[in-house]
Design goal:
heterotrimer, A mainly alpha (about 70), B mainly alpha (about 240), C mainly alpha (about 260), A: mainly alpha, about 85% helix, B: about 240 residues, mainly alpha
């Protein structure tokens, strides 16, 4: 058994699977961020945003602490 | 059918007349092609300076064809071609000409054919200048298969222009121009480069006759992408 | 507090991503958990199998074992590219944006998978023939494929208008896939270092089959998750930019204010 062959073999698997799993993890993190953003936007904040759209001001959102 | 042909010729005539009067594209594109050949010629010299003495040195200084000539010609055609396609589409940017064209009662696929033919005329003009330059700078001996060479380049250029005309329409309406067109055309055109290079290596270096199966690939490429371009052109045209 | 806001604005409608965790607010949705668990178990089993059980191939030696990762990933790359093609046609035919979201998701996965094909191929070339790169038919084909779909992603990122991006993406998606057989045919003209069809022992065929499972599950899962994400993004962009959304927001605001009071 050629020792270098083993290195290349392991290297190939590590990099190959690492790339695939790394992409999966990055995707999962992106989904998590989307989910957290969605969950944190409560109903009253929605209403505040809606009132602002109606009145053309930013006072309602600002009262609720939204940027 | 004849009516469509007449419309195509009208459009082609318009483009070529504009080009003949302003001569903006043809000059740029030919000079670019020549410069690329020269740059590559200088770059591919190959031998260290110390060895350049006497007749042996002279012999080594002369660039022997090998197959670097096909690569050089292809690079020149590709870059000059991209510039050419971009400019023929951009002609329509002035004076809302594209709007006028789109409002005209003609099938937009015909606009594709017209642009394709204009592009082909310009590219062939470039090839007529750049190829002799390549032959001269690289001592490329075409006598072994001039007819084959013409057929290969002709078939490849048609495919290249087919793809380029469609993509130029995509790019001309977007805000990022520059390298975007090159980036789109090159990967799709790689089969043309691969096949034509192999064929030319076969004919000129290995003295093999023209391989019809390879020529078949080029012709298939042309047919597929001219058809696809014709069908999809309408979708990408945007004022 | 009226519930119409939480249910109508926040809740994803339709198929958003059954294999991801953005659907619903439950702690641990069942289907994604089971699916990913299955995938990882299959992957672990496959890895153990390849390193502990599969026999070494006579002529090429240990390095041949890269094949068990390389081939399933290559096949899945092709399937992802096919998905982009079908989704492109679907969009041009129906003009519904979900086709476009699917195409974008499949293209991303295609690029990631193609990168794996290239990298594992390079390691194999280095181990078997001593060079990192060879313009052989298969490596050349993989390289061109990679470029075709990377350009697809770059092209999309350069277009702001969602609808224009979908149309251009679809046109390019079709052109790119039409090019694939031509690339394959032309790459076959390159000098070939790959061995001809090597007869596989039954143990090797089994290992190969076992590797197809996690690689395909992973590919499908990644496409579905990315698709779900794309759908949510498209929906939120649509609702924030369309004219009639202001009306619906106002209606809901009136309901809420009326309800709170």
């Amino acid at each position: 058994m050629n020792p270098t062959h083993l290195q290349y073999l392991v290297g190939a698997y590590v990099i190959g699977l690492g790339l695939l799993l790394g992409y999966g993890i990055a995707l999962w993190a992106a989904c998590g961020a989307k989910r957290r953003r969605r969950q944190s936007r409560g109903a009253d904040q929605q209403a505040a945003g809606a009132m602002d759209t109606l009145t053309g001001s930013r006072q309602h959102s600002q009262l609720r602490g939204q940027p | 059918m004849l009516y469509s042909l007449r419309q195509i010729f009208l459009l082609v005539g318009k483009d070529l007349r504009i080009e003949a009067r302003s001569r903006q594209t043809i000059g740029l594109v030919i000079v670019l092609g020549l410069l690329i050949v020269v740059v590559l010629g200088l770059g591919l010299q190959g031998q260290p300076a110390a060895d350049r003495s006497g007749m042996a040195g002279l012999e080594r200084q002369v660039n022997h064809a090998g197959f670097s000539a096909t690569a050089v010609l292809w690079v020149a055609y590709l870059f000059a071609g991209v510039l050419c396609f971009e400019k023929t589409m951009n002609v329509e940017r002035t004076d809302a000409a594209l709007a006028g064209l789109m409002l005209a009662p003609l099938d937009r696929g015909l606009i594709y054919f017209a642009k394709l033919i204009s592009n082909l005329v310009l590219i062939l003009a470039v090839a007529l200048v750049v190829t002799p330059a390549g032959v001269v700078f690289f001592n490329f001996d075409l006598s072994a298969g001039l007819g084959s060479f013409i057929m290969i380049v002709g078939a490849a250029v048609i495919g290249f222009a087919a793809v380029g005309t469609l993509f130029a329409a995509v790019v001309s309406s977007s805000r990022l121009q520059g390298g975007l067109l090159a980036m789109m055309i090159f990967p799709v055109s790689l089969p043309l480069v691969i096949v034509s290079s192999r064929m030319m290596t076969g004919i000129f270096l290995e003295a093999r006759p023209l391989e019809t199966s390879s020529l078949g690939i080029l012709i298939a490429f042309d047919a597929i992408f001219v058809a696809a371009g014709w069908l999809l052109f309408d979708l990408v045209l945007e004022v | 507090m009226s519930n119409s806001l939480t249910t109508s604005a926040n809740a994803p409608k339709g198929f958003v991503g059954v294999l991801d965790y953005t659907v619903g607010d439950q702690a641990a949705p069942v289907l994604p958990t089971v699916y990913w668990l299955m995938t990882f178990v299959a992957l672990a089993a496959a890895i153990v199998m390849v390193f502990a059980w599969t026999p070494e191939e006579r002529s090429m030696g240990l390095i041949q074992k890269i094949f068990y990762l390389h081939l399933p990933v290559a096949i899945n790359t092709f399937l992802a590219c096919l998905t982009v093609f079908i989704a492109s046609i679907g969009y041009l035919w129906q003009r519904r944006l979900w086709w476009d979201d699917l195409a974008a998701a499949a293209a991303k996965v295609a690029v990631v998978y193609c990168s794996v094909v290239l990298l594992t191929g390079m390691f194999w070339a280095r181990g078997a023939w001593g060079v990192w790169w060879l313009f052989s038919p298969r490596l050349t084909f993989s390289l061109v494929l990679w470029f075709l779909y990377v350009v697809y992603l770059l092209l999309r990122s350069g277009i702001d208008s969602g609808q224009r991006r979908a149309v251009i993406g679809a046109v390019y998606g079709i052109i790119a896939f039409l090019d694939v057989p031509l690339v394959w045919l032309s790459a076959r003209l390159m000098p070939d270092m790959h061995p001809g069809h090597v007869a596989l022992a039954p143990a090797m065929t089994l290992t190969l089959a076992v590797w197809f499972v996690p690689m395909t599950l992973l590919a499908v899962g990644l496409i579905v998750v990315r698709y779900g994400l794309n759908r949510q993004i498209t929906r939120s962009l649509a609702s924030s930019s369309s004219w009639d959304s202001a009306e619906s927001v106002a209606t809901r605001a009136m309901e809420t204010v009326g309800g709170a009071a």
